[in-house]
Amino acid sequence: MKRKSIFLLLCMFLLTSCGQEPEPESEPEPNFIQIPEITEPASQQTPPISTQEPTVEETKPPAPETVYLNHQDLFEVQADVTIADFITSANVTITDEVLAMPVDTSHPGSFEITVPYLYGDETREEILSYQVRDTTPPVILNEGYGAFIKTGEVFDLRELIGYGDNYDTQPTLTYEGEVNTEIPGNYMLSAYLTDSSGNQSNCRLNVLVADEKPLSESRKEKLTFEDIASQYETSAAIPGVDISKWQGYVDFDAMKEAGCEFVIMRIGSSSGYPSVDDYFERNFRDAKEAGLKVGVYFYTTDVSESQIREDADWIVSRLDGAKLDFPIAFDWEDFQHFQQYDINLHQLNALYHAFADELEQNGYDTMLYASKFFLETVWENPNEEYIWLAHYTEKTNYTGKYRIWQRSDSCHVDGIEGNADVNILYPESEMP
After folding, report:
1. What are the Cα distances from residue 256, in Å, to 251, 253, 263, 286, 351?
2. Which of 133, 148, 173 is the last residue of a domain?
């Protein structure tokens, strides 16, 4: 009975499951991590990467506890000195503007100068003292060679020699010896030139007293232009001449055929007012037409800066824009009577610089014309400016730099009546 009941229950289970499909087993879903999308706001852009190094703020050195400005305490009168020359060492900063300031050396004596400097963030000042002295002897510019006095005339040594000083305008001239102008003959003197600081120069000279001045015979060797030009045939240096109204009419074509390659002519002169050389217009035109290189020089005895600048402006006006092949030459050379102009040698140099400055403002360069002796004793040329040297010799011993050498004043040149000056122009690569 018990077995019959179990059978009936099994049959009923089978009947209820007929006709139904079994449900598939469900697979586990993948375990994904969802990353949210990141978007930039439309108004913002990624900034560019900077390639510049970060600015480092400059730090000033701390101010020293004790300030020192070591300096020179003695200068020569009329010396060209700036603060940069004056201060030898310092432990504070001095600006370039201050370093360029001039130091007054215009006259002998005791001076004080105020020097500004930077002390941390402050600008402070130091008052420094110095001395200026005159230790340069005066210069006898013409030792009275060939000194002559006509019988019965008054003797005045100042009329026979020329002299000057770097500071004094009138150094004192004395002499030892005697000259009796009533008795013809030769008289030997010792001359002494003394400035206000006690510096002294001296010379010996012979004074001739006679009824007539004897004619001097030139000992200069007579050369032709060809003699000199032939010495430079294998050199880059070229020969030329300088002329003025004293040469009269010049045949520039004949000069050119003789080998002359350039000419420097006097444009004018001034002793208070400039005037044109009588032959300048013709010389300038004809030299250009002959194919020569052309330059001009200006002779002057003016002694004021205002007049010198007027001279320079007059030259510019006279040239009227004409092209030159050389700087304009400044020719001041009345040293036989220099003391009569009542200026010192420093002031004379200042005249040249004023002349050059005025011409530079108008587009022209300048050169200085002078003999070897005066280049060595009178003219200051610290910047080695363009020099036209006059030295009548076969081989000059002048040690400074020069661009043109006036080698002779007594040459025969085809196209010129009488003697003429012959010059040698050196290229910059061969400047002596």
Report:
1. 9, 5, 10, 11, 36
2. 133
Q: Please give the structure tokens belonging to residue 275.
A: 């005037």
Domain boundary among the residues 133, 148, 172 is at 133
The string of pLDDT tens digits covering residues 41-100 is 444 455 555 555 555 555 566 777 789 999 999 999 999 999 999 999 999 999 999 999
Instruction: Give the contacts of 237 (CB within 8 A, at least 6 positions apart).
Output: 424, 425, 426, 427, 430
Report yes or no on 31 lying in a domain.
no
The Cα–Cα gap between 417 and 290 comes to: 18
User: What DSSP state is assigned to residue 336?
Assistant: G
What does the pLDDT read at residue 48?
A: 56
What is residue 377's predicted lDDT score, i.e. its pLDDT? 94
Query: Can you list the residues of the chain whose pLDDT is less than 50?
Result: 1-44
Token readout for 48 is 């560019």
Residues 128 and 146 occupy one common structural domain? no
Q: What is the dihedral of CA 335, 296, 237, 373, to 10 degrees?
A: 10
Whether residue 275 is found in the same domain as residue 411: yes
**What is the reported pLDDT for 144?**
83
Q: Is residue 147 part of a domain?
A: yes
CA dist., res. 355 & res. 359, Å (int):
6
* Rounded CA separation 421/284 (Å): 17
The two structure tokens encoding residue 351 = 């005249």
How many whole angstroms separate alpha carbon 422 and alpha carbon 408? Answer: 5
Same domain? For 149 and 79 the reply is no
Distance in angstroms (rounded) separating the CA atoms of residues 407 and 116: 52
User: Does 215 fall in a domain?
Assistant: no
Residue type, 61: P
* Total structural domains within the chain: 3
pLDDT of residue 323: 94
pLDDT score, position 121: 86
Distance, CA of 101 to CA of 104 (rounded, Å): 10
Residue 387 makes CB contacts below 8 A (sequence gap 6+) with: 367, 368, 370, 375, 381, 400, 401, 402, 403, 404
Residues spanned by the domain of 412: 223-430
